[in-house]
Design brief:
By secondary structure, this protein is an alpha/beta fold. It contains 15 helices and ten strands. The protein folds into two domains: 127 residues, Enolase-like, domain 1; 217 residues, Alpha-Beta Barrel (TIM Barrel), CATH 3.20.20.120. α1 packs across α4, α5 packs parallel to α15 and α11 runs parallel beside α12. It is globular, with a radius of gyration of 21 Å. The model has no long low-confidence stretch (mean pLDDT 97). It binds 6-deoxy-L-galactonic acid and magnesium ion. It comes from Sapajus apella. InterPro entries: Enolase-like_C_sf, Enolase-like_N, Enolase_C-like, L-fuconate_dehydratase, Mandel_Rmase/mucon_lact_enz_CS, Mandelate_racemase_C, Mandelate_racemase_N_dom, RHMD-like.
Amino acid sequence: MVRGRISRLSVRDVRFPTSLGGHGSDAMHTDPDYSAAYVVIETDAEDGLKGCGITFTLGKGTEVVVCAVNALAHHVLNKDLKDIVGDFRGFYRQLANDGQLRWIGPEKGVVHLATAAILNAVWDLWAKQEGKPVWKLLVDMDPRTLVSCIDFRYITDVLTEEDALEILQKGQVGKKEREEQMLAQGYPAYTTSCAWLGYSDDMLKQLCTQALKDGWTRFKVKVGADLQDDERRCRLIRDVIGPEKTLMMDANQRWDVPEAVEWMSKLAKFKPLWIEEPTSPDDILGHATISKALVPLGIGVATGEQCHNRVIFKQLLQAKALQFLQIDSCRLGSVNENLSVLLMAKKFEIPVCPHAGGVGLCELVQHLILFDYISVSASLKNRMLATQQK
Ligand SMILES: C[C@H](O)[C@@H](O)[C@@H](O)[C@H](O)C(=O)O
Ligand SMILES: [Mg+2]
């Protein structure tokens, strides 16, 4: 049973000096310090349970997100958890539409990252009070309650409440078997951490060799800054992993649209499954042009880690601008908004391959993708989770 009144919210600025080793580096973020705004909420219930939620950031950006969390905190403080989750759609809207803060959003940027951190903490607390992990809380929830957590504003032209209910009701069939399968086998994953752009060729070779030995079969490499470097690095990786293993490429928004097409025709010989973030995350039609141009090369477009909200995802789907949809557990407005994107992806039959790797993301997305497989998509085709190798 949900209980307690939120009596305290604290937020910490947590940073790791990952830029020193080039970890996490790509064609646009050359010196990332992996960081998080870390929110903890407490209640006056005598169970000692706390809700922990984060949003992923880079270095100095964390200061700004921490400010935004503090600016939103009054929406949560002194509220009964029962009232929050009893009208979760309303509560999501309240945070996302704060009369003064929405002007510097709305539903995007720093305010939305802060919203995600707070809501992630609320979901964590709810699940802890129910004695379950978040994925299980979602899987066990009846479709009507799930739908009541989602804000359908701006997406009813592609997904109505009735559509969502229908998808979730169909997802009940075979749910138990899929849950057992996940518990026994886990979810397919790729390593996102063997080929950061700042790594030397030696390091790349060593990490890919180790990953292969450890059983990894899917690898992602950063590209986009220099074509000759990309060709050399991709050749080196293919030499290590062989022609059959799956390789994905990530340009982190480096190119213009024609440049993306041209560059990828040069890298097509390395047989990438997808090119991730080829251009600006806001350029929906640009992604569509790139997707269309790359079909004959057998390369899909993946994007989402910097997609502001469900509206951008809706348009990417409508415009056939992506072949792999990468939700982000902390950029979208927490579980609530991610649910709407999972359901839209199901409606368009586009596979979801969550973005992860940054602080806490690998943990958070597991909950979303397990729910997706067990209750929504019921498919593992072309789907995998991003993970950091040890
Ligand atoms: C700055 C970060 O490490 C990004 O490079 C990272 O999120 C990346 O785009 C990824 O897909 O893992
Ligand atoms: Mg990426």
